[in-house]
Amino acid sequence: MWLHQDGAMVINDADGSTIWSANTSTPEVDRAELLNSGNLVLKNSNGRILWQSFDFPTDTLLPQQLITKGKRLLSSIGPGGFSSGYFILYFDSDNVLRMMVVLVQRQIQFLASDMGLGVTRRLTLDFDGNLRLYSLNESTGLWGISWEAFAQECNVHGVCGRYGVCVYTPKPMCSCPPGYEVSDPADWNKGCKPKFKTSCDSQQVRFVELPYTDYYGFDLNYTQGISLEECRKICLKDCSCGAFQYRVGFCYAKGELFNGRRTPSFPGTIYLKLPKSQEVQEPSKFNESEPVCNSSQGEVVIGSSETFTNGGSNEYTHFFWFALGVGVVEILFIVTGWWYLFKKQGMPKEGYQAITDQFRRFSYAELKKATNNFKEELGKGASGAVYKGVLNDNRAVGVK
């Protein structure tokens, strides 16, 4: 790095060629300073800042560094890489912080898990599209995650690229749906590509069922209160519809297939449009033995070969036995409940009933008679008044 006499600060390559310049060619520049905050500044002889690196963030924000309109965070292509990545964080004209949150006021606050003074921190838009706050462990010299915008990596938009599906197995990994293959095994942001040529002939296509799966967003239309068959026909007639999601009367025809994710708790199903000539055994399931994410160090290692496998009904076998077990438990509860009700009806309704530990349960009429209509109050406690009473066998008692 050089600071020339004309005020230009440049970085030269080994051959002497300029690869970066601060565009500060003015003789007013007197010196360059690297402040304790991490801000690199150019000052004049009076100490006034003429240029500062804080005005040109890359993928990281340091303490006291602001992100405002006209500025943006751009992720890197990968861990340790310096090429531009695929994720940008910026304010649009509507004061919306794109990709992460919608601002409802001019200031928004996030709290780190180790909130407080004395900790060195940095805010980084990582290569996987997640915004993370890192805190420095002074004793080890390592950075640890103290806050992140998405605790679940599969919720990051586009993390597995076009057509890709983020799967929890139980940790997240990327995969391709049936009929698709990975575009670039070294870069999952490029997603998947079809193995077939797209056809608009409705007689030549079919739908493959992907349970618990969703491609969030990019809906061509939304229809409520229709059947699965009606939803299928909507997508079948539209050449631009690549799939549809259906759940309990709700139909979502999908155009672009981005933000794919699969979770066992998701109640919907994606029906993927494929040519009939494309061989796919159903039901399709995920291979759960591929590389997964490692979020403990803030590095998402989402990368694998095609992880949908064709055929296999093991998943549905497990589901059948699980449903059967739940049904048996419910039947036992019902039978036990009916037995308890019939037994209770057979007990005497007046007087008292003997409990297993020989305590008595008195009716309101018996207590009223024993206390002479709650005449003599002995005292009051946290649970109410206590009245003097005499039972039929002449024993004195206290009644609450």
From TrEMBL:
It is a single-pass membrane protein. Residues 200-275 form the Apple domain. Its EC number is 2.7.11.1. It catalyses: L-threonyl-[protein] + ATP = O-phospho-L-threonyl-[protein] + ADP + H(+); L-seryl-[protein] + ATP = O-phospho-L-seryl-[protein] + ADP + H(+). Keywords: Disulfide bond, EGF-like domain, Kinase, Membrane, Receptor, Signal, Transferase, Transmembrane, Transmembrane helix. Residues 1-55 form the Bulb-type lectin domain. It holds the Pfam family S_locus_glycop. Its main location: membrane. GO terms for biological process: recognition of pollen. Residues 150-186 form the EGF-like domain. It is found in: Membrane. GO terms for cellular component: membrane. One of its GO terms (molecular function) is protein serine/threonine kinase activity. The chain crosses the membrane at residues 319-342. PANTHER family: OS07G0415500 PROTEIN, RECEPTOR-LIKE SERINE_THREONINE-PROTEIN KINASE. This is non-specific serine/threonine protein kinase. The lineage of its organism: Eukaryota, Viridiplantae, Streptophyta, Embryophyta, Tracheophyta.
